[in-house]
Amino acid sequence: MRAESANLGAVILPAKPDRNLAMELVRVTESAALAASKWVGRGDKNAADGAAVDAMRNLLDTVNMDGVVVIGEGEKDEAPMLFNGERVGNGSKPVTDVAVDPIDGTTLTSLGRGNALSVIAVAERGSMFNPGPFVYMNKIAVGPDARGAIDITKSTRHNLDAIARAKHKTLNELTIVMLDRPRHTDLIGEIRAAGCRIKMITDGDIFGAIAAALPWTGVDALMGIGGTPEGVTSAAALKALGGEIQGLLWARGDEDRALAKASGIDMNRVLTTDDLVQCEDAFFAATGVTDGDLLRGVRYDAYGATSQSLVMRVRSGTIRTIDTRHRADRIGQYSSVEFR
Question: Strand 197-201 to strand 175-179: parallel, antiparallel, or no bridges (unpaired)?
Fold first, then answer.
C-alpha cells in the first residue's frame, strides 16, 4: 500500500507495505468458511451465502485497513452487505480496494460438492479493475510455465498449441477446466477436436483460474466465459503465483452492447493480469468450504473444527498453506456459526 512519503531533505523514502495484510485477511475467509460449512449439503445456497456474508462482514471490521469494496456481492446478488462501494475495515491505513466472494461456489456448497471456497483479495486503492455492470468475461488463465504464451484474440487451437509447447506437453496431455454452460458448446468441440481433455465444473470460477496455476491440480488452463468480478479476484492470486489471465468483456445481449457504446467501453480491449490488478501491493486469501483440489473443506471433530487456507502476497510471491484448528467454545467469537 502507498505509505506517506517522508521528506528528509531531498530524500523521498519509497512506498512499501509494512506488513503482510493477507495474514489478517485469512481470519476473514476462515470465518466465512466456518459459517458456510453448516449449510453444506442442505440444499439452500441462499442461506449458505447469507451466513458467509454475515461472518465475513463482521470480521472485516477488525482488519487494519480503510477499504472500499470494488468487487462485492454486487450487480448479480443485490446483497444488503458487502455491496460495491461499501466501506470496510477499521478505517486505519492502508487505503485499499477490496474484492470479496464469501462463497465461490454457493451451489457446490448447497449440494455438498467439492471445491467451494471463501475468497478475498485486497490491493492498493484505485488499482482493481471495476467491471461495473459488465458481469461476464471471456477468459484464459494459465500458470507461470505458460505465461506469455496465450493470446485471447487468437483461435482456441492456437492457444492450445501455445500452451502445450510452453508446458512441454502434447495436446492430448492437456486438461482444460471450464464452466459447464450451454454457451461453451462450440468451445468444447474445438478443445476435444484438438485432442485435449476437459474438466467441467458447475461453479467455482475462481477455483478454476487458480487451479490452472498450481501443478498438483492436474489442470493446465482455464478457458471460457465466466464472471468478470471473479476474473479480477483471480488476477490477484495469479499475480502472486506468477501466472497470467487475459479477458474480454462479454455482452449478454443488445442491451449490454448498447450500454458499452454509450459508456465508451471498448468490448474488444484485452484485459491483462496487470489491467485487472494494477499494483504489486496486493494480497489474496482463500479458505476451503468443501473438500477440493486446492484445499480441504471445514471439518468438525470433538475439539471443534479445522480449516485449510491459501494465503498469497503478490510483492514477495509468497504462497502459504495454513491449517487451523478452531476450539468449539471460541468459534462464536469469530464467526456467526453456532457450533453444536
Answer: parallel
Count how many residues are written for the chain. Answer: 340
* Strand, helix or coil for residue 250: coil
Distance CA 22, CA 85 (A): 21
- For 131-167, write each residue's pLDDT tens digit: 878 889 999 999 999 999 999 999 999 999 999 999 9
Nearest to 313 by CA among 272, 340, 280, 275: 280
Helix-strand-coil split of the chain, %, nearest 5: 35, 25, 40
CB-CB contact of 116 with 36 (8 Å) = yes
Which pLDDT value is given to residue 333? Answer: 61
Burial status of residue 46 (CB atoms within 10 A of its CB: 0-12, 13-18, 19 or more): exposed
Q: Evaluate whether 219 touches 211 at the Cβ level (below 8 Å).
A: yes
Is the pTM higher than 0.70? The answer reads: yes
With CA atoms as reference, report the closest residue to 226 among 192, 243, 250, 196. 250
**Cα radius of gyration (the chain):** 20
